[in-house]
Design brief:
Layout (H helix, E strand, L loop, with lengths): L2 H12 L2 H16 L29 H11 L5 H18 L3 H22 L3
């Protein structure tokens, strides 16, 4: 087994069952992302589809919010947002940040990237 895999296994075994589930959810989210940036260049604003906003449930995990927002904004390249979103998820997992505040910030990030995509295609 590679060194990184051993380290991950050891860390995983030290976590509580709840934290193990969160780590697995986050790993599943990372594995589900499209790794390559989109090569399609849209030239007209009407080609950028409107987001299909999925209502935020009363109780939601940060990883669940990432999945919901990814479905709400399928036109966004998630690899471009990886830095900001992964930092927030890591902060939540490592430091126990308030999930509601983190989810609020994730929603701002997704909406901001959508607005950039739309405005970047106005000419």
């Amino acid at each position: 087994m590679a060194s990184a895999e051993q380290q991950l296994t050891e860390l995983f075994q030290q976590l509580s069952a709840t934290d193990q589930a969160t780590l697995l959810d986050f790993a599943a989210f990372l594995a589900s992302r499209t790794p390559a940036p989109r090569a399609v260049v849209m030239t007209e604003p009407e080609l950028v589809p409107e987001p299909e906003i999925i209502e935020r449930p009363a109780q939601e995990s940060v990883v669940g919010a990432l999945k919901r927002l990814s479905k709400s904004y399928p036109m966004l390249d998630k690899t471009v947002m990886l830095g900001a979103t992964s930092e927030l998820v890591a902060t939540t997992i490592m430091r126990g940040s308030d999930p509601v505040a983190v989810i609020d910030e994730l929603e701002v990030i997704f909406k901001g990237h959508y607005e950039q995509l739309k405005s970047g295609n106005k000419g």
